[in-house]
Design goal:
The chain has four helices and 56 strands. It is mainly β and 736 residues long. A five-stranded mixed β-sheet has the order 2-9-8-4-6, with no helix packed on it. It has a five-stranded mixed β-sheet with strand order 11-18-17-13-15, with no helix packed on it. It has a five-stranded mixed β-sheet with strand order 20-27-26-22-24, with no helix packed on it.
């Protein structure tokens, strides 16, 4: 007898030591995003994302659960593998969408921060990890005032518009008031729906003695709640009619008899548009005598002066405001008249003789225009071919400027043409010129290539064939191309040596079988190329199909879907349906999942991709919000692919009042919607040195609901199972 007790003690010590060793090193990790979110009461939260990582060297299964504040209902957590269990390989991390979480705060939840947890338990090692995140319940009532500062004219009536917005979640009426004695509101109250805003106008009549910055307070208060807001607005009262006149060039030098052109700028520094009159000397001309300038804008006035004798002459212009005639400004200019003009046109290297250029490529040549005289001069530049970067240059004595001549060979020449070009600089009777001979040659070329692994082979009518067309500019110049292939036309340009690849997909679905021939045609103004490929399309009866099953039942093969797929749910609670989508076709396909029903219905996935024979579980989560109508709702879930494979299933949700479904003890979360005895059978082979026997241990858990998060209760059950296994091992050991 003592030997038996000794053996039991040793066995339990070994089990305890193994368990402690496994717990010493973390086998898992979990991340939750975001760590903080907010919502109104009775509003479902669906943005929480959970990622679990297997840090171990073997595959593990994790049991996921939610811990929510008291009175919030059950919430929902599920995985794409089914239920709330998730299996990950060694060093594997779950992906976006693998784990789905829905939380519906209680309709009576108070405003403030609330703590929630997500718990993951390693089913193999027993290790538990939990992550806490915060949920802020919003007040859902508030006022927003949008009131920018404004500039206005002193002594001038004006209006000011501001916006009042309801930033809460319920409709309310608000009283509006301002503190300005010289302002009158067009209305003093406003009724706004949630997130609605309306403009309110304040009529202003500020006396002339009020200047600079004037402040007024805008106050908005709810007529039925605590919501209120206040904002101070600054009105900048300014003189609206101020201006400045200044010359762009105050002094000009010209040869005797030449004209000098001055530019004077009138700048309106006020807040209102103003019109200005301009008066000048007799020997001066202006291009406009009256000019209107926008507020904070400016206008230029061109002044032309001429001198017929050597020396310096002065002139002035006077500018007066029409709105405030007492405001006037006078500016002056000077004209220096000097003798002698001379000019030289000097070509840069390469522009002094005959040149050969590529046709279609702009050819550029530089010339230096130099004032070789003793006075400032304005030179008019011209060329009988091409375009000059400057048509007029102003140079002081000895000063020079580089001018570029551009010849567009594509529009001004043909291949093989020779142009004889003269560049000339002229000022009055003084001029200089240079001649250049230019010949256009052809420098264009291209290559065309089509690549595909499917060229000439047999494929089924449901397959797509990928083609890549490669175009390269093998010439010396940029060129504009047009590519026609598979009924598509693309236009593009390529630099010298540049290449582009164009991808095409030829879909054989719906096409007649047989040998196909596709020709790519590449053209430009100077190049024409063709390339042909062949494709043999073979018939295939069906390539794409999909099935939806609910609880393992194929929905295409039952008489009534809705009878099989009906659940009850209380208002402000949630239930879920588990659907399995399977690709029963012969080709991999992608599917869009949609659900027709109330706005409080959510899908765990909207887009899925399945290989042939692959099956994936998705969830439909229904959480009727506070105020939802009671009764029966039909949810129509559809799965469709671009290849016309589709299936659908009808789900029925019976929304009932709270308390209609059997109450679950406070703080507990049932594993199923059923009540009664849950019996687990642990069946296995126990092997001794002499024989192997089959033993079944039946354990009955008392009637009632229990929660995943009740760790101590589950630990007790696991302990009972472990003791039962130990007892069996001991009996078998001594029986032998």
């Amino acid at each position: 007898m003592k030997g038996k007790y000794l053996f039991i003690g040793i066995l339990m010590a070994v089990l305890l030591a193994a368990n402690m060793s496994a717990a010493s090193a973390a086998s898992m990790d979990m991340d939750v995003y975001p760590l903080s979110t907010s919502a109104c009461p009775c509003t479902t939260i669906s943005e929480v994302r959970v990622f679990v990582t297997n840090l171990g060297s073997v595959s593990d299964t994790y049991d996921l659960s939610l811990v929510l504040p008291a009175g919030w209902g059950k919430g929902f957590i599920g995985t794409y593998q089914g239920g709330h269990m998730l299996t990950l390989g060694p060093q594997e991390t779950s992906k976006e969408g693998d784990i789905t979480v829905y939380i519906t705060p209680s309709c009576t939840a108070e405003a403030g921060m609330n703590e929630a947890k997500i718990v993951a338990k390693n089913e193999r090692t027993g290790e538990v990890i939990e992550k806490t995140f915060m949920i802020e319940i919003l007040t859902c009532r508030g006022i927003g005032i949008t009131a920018p500062s404004m500039d206005m004219c002193e002594g001038v009536a004006d209006s000011y518009t501001f916006s009042v917005g309801n930033v809460g979640k319920v409709a309310e009426s608000f009283d509006v008031a301002v503190s300005a004695p010289w302002g009158e509101l067009t209305r003093q109250s406003v009724t706004l729906g949630p997130n609605e805003a309306q403009d309110i106008t304040l009529l202003l009549d500020i006396p002339e003695e009020y200047k600079d910055v004037q402040k007024l307070d805008i106050e908005v208060k709810s007529q039925s709640s605590y919501a209120e807001a206040k904002k101070t607005v600054e009105l900048n009262v300014r003189d609206c009619y101020k201006f400045t006149v200044y010359p762009a060039d105050a002094v000009k030098s010209v040869c005797i008899g030449d004209e000098a052109r001055f530019v004077f700028v009138i700048e309106n520094n006020g807040l209102k548009a103003d019109t200005y009159t301009i008066a000048t000397n007799d020997n001066v001309e202006v291009d406009k005598a009256v000019v209107t300038v926008a507020p904070q804008g400016q206008e230029s006035v061109k002044v032309t002066a001429k001198s017929f004798e050597a020396g310096t002459t002065s002139f002035q212009i006077e500018v007066a405001s029409e709105e405030k005639p007492e405001q006037k400004q006078t500016v002056r200019g000077k004209l220096n008249a000097k003798e002698c003009k001379s000019v030289a046109v000097v070509p840069s290297e390469g522009a002094e003789s005959a040149q050969a250029v590529c046709y279609g490529k702009p050819a550029q040549f530089q010339f230096k225009v130099q004032n070789t005289g003793t006075i400032f001069a304005v030179y008019e530049l011209s060329s009988d071919f091409g375009t000059l970067s400057e048509t007029s240059v102003s140079l002081e004595s000895g000063e020079s400027k580089t001018v570029t001549l551009t010849v567009n060979t594509a529009s001004e020449m043909e291949i093989g043409d020779t142009a004889y070009i003269t560049v000339k600089a002229v000022s009055d009777t003084v001029e200089s010129e240079h001649n250049l001979e230019l010949t256009a040659t052809n420098c264009y070329g291209a290559s065309l290539e089509i690549t595909s692994d499917d060229d000439g082979r047999q494929i089924c009518v449901c397959d797509n064939v990928d083609y890549v067309v490669i175009v390269k500019n093998s010439g010396q110049l940029k060129d504009e191309f047009e590519l026609e292939f598979l009924g598509e036309t693309k236009t593009f340009s390529l630099e010298q040596g540049e290449q582009k690849e164009f991808s095409y997909v030829y879909g054989t679905l719906g096409k007649e079988p047989g040998m196909k021939e596709f020709t790519a045609v590449l053209t430009s103004k100077y190049v024409t190329l063709q390339k042909t490929v062949n494709l043999n399309v073979e018939e295939l009866e069906a390539c794409f199909d999909v099935d939806i099953s609910v609880n393992g039942v194929d929905q295409k093969n039952i008489q009534s879907q809705t009878i099989q797929n009906t659940k009850k749910v209380e208002v402000c609670d949630g239930i879920s349906f588990s659907l399995s989508v399977k690709n029963v076709g012969s080709k991999a396909d992608s599917y869009m999942v949609t659900a027709e029903g109330p706005e409080w219905v959510f899908l765990s996935a909207n887009n899925i991709i399945l290989d042939v024979g692959e099956e994936r579980e998705i969830y439909v989560y229904a959480a009727p919000e506070y105020g939802a109508d009671l009764g029966v709702y039909t949810l129509n879930v559809k799965v469709e692919s671009p290849k016309d494979a589709k299936d659908e299933v009808g789900l029925v949700v019976n929304v009932v009042e709270r308390g209609t479904i059997t109450e679950i003890p406070s703080g507990a979360e049932p594993l199923t919607n059923q009540t009664g005895n849950v019996t687990n059978e642990i069946i296995g082979d126990i092997t001794t040195d002499n024989a192997t026997s089959n033993i079944t241990v039946n354990m009955t858990i008392p009637t009632g609901a229990f929660t995943i998060t009740e760790v101590s209760g589950r630990a007790a059950i696991i302990g009972l199972i472990a003791l039962a296994i130990i007892a069996i091992l001991v009996i078998r050991f001594f029986v032998k």
